[in-house]
Amino acid sequence: MPSDEKPTLRWGIVATGLISSWFVADLIIDREDAQANHIIQAIGSSSLEKGKAFVAKHLPNVSPAPTVYGSYDEIYTDPNVDAVYIGTPHAFHKKNCLDAISHGKSILCEKTFTLNAVEAKEVFEAAKAKGVFVMEAMWTRFFPLVKTIQKLVHEDNAIGHVLRVICDFAMDQHLDSKGQESRLKNLSLGASSLLDIGIYSLTWGIIGLEQPLGDTLKEAQEKPRMLATSTLSEGVDVATSMILHYSDGRQAIATSHSGVGVRTPSNFCRIEGSEGSIVVDGGAASVPNSFVLQKRGIEDQKFEFKRPGKGLYWEADAVALDIAAGRKENGTMPWAETIRVMELLDETRRQGGVVFPQDPQ
């Protein structure tokens, strides 16, 4: 492929829920900064009717229209699909990934990657054996805003020595109105405020306190000591607080809450250093919009970023570039990092008392 030519990636979409609708809507946005061409080749759903309804609602003007399948397996066997996007509930990620890997498909799998670290390791071992690309879809890490914060904090030392990070993600998930079959209430489906939204608070702790991984580093970073507690409702954590304690004394406080009437203010994260702070603003911890650099003796500086749609296309671009270059994992979200984060989540659940039926006994 010529250096000035964008790679083209043909996607098969596995599942037709909310996050999949966001993903396909972002892929068809015409962007000036696009680094790849994305084709929505096929849609796989639990039924043909649901798949057709998904296309009619979210992709009405796409030409040619994607092929619609009434099963996920048909996505994996479609020779015109280069990569699959997996948007099923957490509990199905392991099986979906293993099925796609067995057919040699590259994978972008939604966070949280699996239910636990054991499952994540099993998926990556299968991917390594088959020689296919796999990445966890932790989309927030790919935002230009996040990359800019990492440069300011860890390369430019804009706030001096980083001391601590405080981040919260709370939203009313209306759990009281949902039935036991909901992915947010059924433990066998991975019901967990921590896995659903708390992972973003944890991620901001990592973003603020740790050097970015870069494009080549594949070794896991230090795994901080975790202190955690959860509030449970029928075994499901509706609120979790985590303290990440690093060996040099740095700390991150990361919290999540899915209770009634609770919502984080827009300034959801604060990164504090010896010479100043960065305050991150947005509709939620998953989708930052801007940040303010506060430095003693200097006027506050606000950084704003253009973001049409949701911002899921930046991770999709990264996948396309990696696959075109023959890489099997991504430098921003390598396999070792997914495993490390899963281990931190496992330890948080252990301390908080959240147990999934699929957890190792």
TrEMBL record:
Enzyme class comes to oxidoreductase
Which UniProt keywords are listed?
Oxidoreductase
Signal peptide as annotated in the record:
none
- A Pfam match: GFO_IDH_MocA_C3
EC number(s) stated in the UniProt entry for this protein? 1.1.1.179
Ranges for domain GFO/IDH/MocA-like oxidoreductase: 149-279
Question: InterPro entries attached here?
Answer: Gfo/Idh/MocA-like_OxRdtase_N, Gfo/Idh/MocA_domain, GFO_IDH_MocA-like_dom, NAD(P)-bd_dom_sf
GO molecular function ontology, one term from the record = D-xylose 1-dehydrogenase (NADP+) activity
Q: Which domain of life is it from?
A: Eukaryota
Q: Which residues form the Gfo/Idh/MocA-like oxidoreductase N-terminal domain?
A: 10-136
Q: Which reaction does it catalyse?
A: D-xylose + NADP(+) = D-xylono-1,5-lactone + NADPH + H(+)
Tell me which family the UniProt entry assigns to this protein.
Belongs to the Gfo/Idh/MocA family.
State what protein this is by name.
D-xylose 1-dehydrogenase (NADP(+), D-xylono-1,5-lactone-forming)
Q: What is the lineage of its organism?
A: Eukaryota, Fungi, Dikarya, Ascomycota, Pezizomycotina
